[in-house]
Amino acid sequence: MTNYLAVLGAMLSLFATACHASQDAAKPAPAKPAAAAPSTAAPVAAAAPAATALPRYTQNAAKSSLKFTFEQAGAAATGTFRKFTTVLVYDEKNLAASSLKVRVDIASIDTQEPERDSMLKDADLFNVAKYPAATFTASSLAKPADGTLEAVGKLTIRDVTREVRLPLTLKPTPEGFELSGKFTLKRLDYGVGQGELKATDSVGNDVKVEYAVSLVRSRG
Description:
The chain has about 220 residues and is an alpha+beta fold. It has 2 helices and 12 strands; from the N terminus they run H-E-E-E-E-E-E-H-E-E-E-E-E-E.
């Protein structure tokens, strides 16, 4: 009897142990903490440094001249424009970003003959009442193969615009530069000469322009 009870107790003990193990196995394993997702945000790029402004030079009117020469009745005649403005933005190491702007007040024309000045301002020539200014604008400078300096831009007279290669010589001065040069244009290309004045027997077609401009570097 005693052996029977001992065997029965052992069997009950084994059965209880098996049930406990089965219950533990049925329990879900504790969840592992999720790993932090890698950041997908792009790093903030450093701000690009601001472009340095090129030096700017403006005209000293008291030391500047804009002259022209043409042929009238077989003789050379000369004149000047008393009022004009020039702005040069220039860096010899960055010609592509350099620029030149010129504005000429046509009414300031002076040939030392008031009657001829009036004729030049009339509708058949410069037509100052309708076209008071001539302008030249170049958004870059260039050096041709010969090593000279040019401003390649647009010249507008009487609302007619043509491309012009303006030769420049820049001579350093204590204040900035002395800009000088000369070129020849054809007045009829810009409509300066209407009606009878289109004829070139009394007034020649070629006009030689010469400039010497004192430029002072702007501050600030």
